[in-house]
Write a structure and sequence with these properties.
Layout: E1 2-4, H1 10-20, H2 28-36, E2 40-47, E3 50-59, E4 65-73, H3 82-96, E5 101-107, H4 111-119, E6 123-132, E7 137-145, H5 146-151, E8 162-163, E9 169-170
Parallel strand pairs: 4-5
Antiparallel strand pairs: 1-2, 2-3, 3-4, 5-7, 6-7, 8-9
Helix pairs in contact: 1-2
Length: 191
């Protein structure tokens, strides 16, 4: 089940953050500030009462654009559509806030995450050489026209509602993996 993240989720989020981003994990202080930020919208994905993933959006209501900050999942929960559900929930929130475009950065060494974003309609704008440090991996900068995404759902879907594993609609209240279609980092280096 996808729900809005709270400060009570910080410990679980940080465990996933460190497992997912061992060389460039955000600090607990940075993540706490993100969770509490006026323009932040963070979600967690729970299964059996345990946080198994999280995702974040930076968006000013009524602004033209928003940024996907991060999406990450525990290893055992990748590849089952959870990353896509988190992404769709963030995009739905951006739309509800009146944003028209959504931007993100994804590691060039993560074709699974890049494929997920492309499948939802993101396009590549360019690359930032050696953006992810200390690894020196390029960032692929991507953009989505949110209005087109709303009117022409990709992948033959008829809507962009996010669903939990039981098919219940979850309200829109860094994808990580190596090679999974649901995964790796869209995490921006700056918070």
């Amino acid at each position: 089940m996808i729900r809005r993240a709270t400060s009570d989720d910080l410990e679980a989020i940080m465990a996933i953050e460190h497992a997912s981003f061992p060389t460039d994990a955000w600090s607990a202080e940075t993540m706490a500030a993100e969770l509490a930020g006026e323009y932040s919208h963070y979600l967690v994905d729970e299964q059996d009462g345990r946080v198994v993933g999280y995702a974040g959006l930076r968006s000013v209501r009524g602004a033209s654009d928003a940024d996907i900050q991060t999406i990450a999942l525990l290893d055992a929960h990748r590849g089952a559509g959870r990353g896509r559900a988190l992404l769709v929930a963030l995009l739905s929130e951006a739309s509800a806030r009146g944003n028209r475009e959504v931007f993100l950065e994804v590691r060039a060494d993560n074709p699974g995450a890049e494929g997920l974003y492309l499948s939802e309609g993101f396009t590549e704008l360019g690359r930032r050489p050696r953006y992810y440090q200390p690894d020196g991996v390029d960032a692929i900068v991507m953009k989505l026209d949110l209005r087109a995404w709303q009117t022409e759902p990709p992948n033959g879907r008829t809507s962009h509602d996010s669903e939990d594993r039981n098919g219940a609609i979850a309200p829109p209240d860094r994808v990580i993996s190596s090679g999974s279609s649901d995964a790796q980092t869209a995490k921006e280096a700056t918070a």
